[in-house]
TrEMBL record:
Protein name per its UniProtKB record: Cytochrome c-551
Leader sequence residues: 1-32
Keyword Cell membrane included in the entry's annotation: no
Record's keyword terms, sorted: Electron transport, Heme, Iron, Metal-binding, Signal, Transport
Keyword Electron transport among record annotations: yes
Every Cytochrome c domain range: 35-121, 168-247
One Pfam family from the record: Cytochrome_CBB3
Amino acid sequence: MRHSFTPVFFLSRLAMLALIAAGIAAPLAANAGEGGMSTGETKARASNCFACHAVDHKLVGPAYQAVADRYAGKGDATVAMLVKKIKMGGAGNWGDVPMTAHPELSDADLTDMVHWILSLHGQAAPASAATTGNAPTAQMHTYKTTDGKSVQTDVNVFTGPDQKQVTDAVFHGFEQYNSYCFRCHGGDAIGGEYAPDLRKSLAGGMTWQQFLSTAMAGRQDKGMPSWAGFFEEKDIRAIYDYIKARQLDLIAPGRPPSAQE
């Protein structure tokens, strides 16, 4: 004889299993961030940390993998030390460029972020990321200056050999520079009352890496703010490319010709 309650019994067991599964899944979901990222990585990407750091190569600060390798297996005291270091900022352990303080981040969030960084220990960097953090050797381009001289640069300034239009990156750099940088460095990258002519800085040997570090970290002693968290690396690179084009006299003052005309 079949019992009328049997289907209900099995449905109840299925419901119970579903509740148990949900109970197991809940803490797992709490430990995962957006898009499958860990909570620590999600919080790091939501902050301005990636303005100065990358996972596998040096930007302004060291690669997160390098940090993980240095502090691997050193225990909870190291986690606490790194949390304090990020919150307080400073320089010395990884070079002379100071790290911006982050007092706005809670100890709990920083702890999650540090645990994620340390979890990167032993992960191999891609072949394109050299141990120094430098990019592969860039392609050289030959252009004519505004007065007809031939120059070479690793910056891709124009979209074609006729030099009629600058690249989107150079035009973006023009827009960003003349929206923000001109206040101190002068319009059209000619130097200003409060800050130096950046064309001369590049001509004097300032590298892309130095330019990026200076822009992101700022120079408090000279009144220059940190742009980390406002600009991304690609924005600073575009500004650099624009200034390099001006320094080499490849584009004249004013709005450069572009596909956006």
